[in-house]
Amino acid sequence: MEPGYQIDVDEEARILRVRGWGVWTVALASAYREDMIRAFARLRGKPWAILADRTGSTVQSEEVANIVADVMSRATAAGRVRAAVLVDSATTLLQWRRIAREQHVEQRAFHTEASALEWLAQEAKKDEKATP
Length: 132
Known about the structure:
By secondary structure, the chain is an alpha/beta fold. The protein is built from four helices and five strands. It has helices spanning 26-43, 62-77, 90-102, 113-130; strands at 4-10, 15-21, 48-53, 80-86, 107-110. The chain has a five-stranded mixed sheet, sandwiched between helices. It comes from Pendulispora brunnea.
């Protein structure tokens, strides 16, 4: 399977769903960044979260990781408040944790989409209660 990604914006739930797989080239990561920036614009105005499915992915090159870090930074600036990531590999998880930590992103790892969505929903309810 060719490496790639898919981006879906759920404006009602305020969740950006991203699926990425394979080993990315710098060109693919750059296209991903541009598509993500367009997706961020659709969610501007109120806080939102991301659900990143990285199952089937692997550790990326440092150049690609730097582009992903830039995307994370831009997401924070665009209103993303937290991230849930689905992983099936310990080494992939370690890379995502490092990038998120360096970008000061509140991120949790999950093995199932249902548990990730449950956490995001619980956190969103906390945000609503905290907002006057």
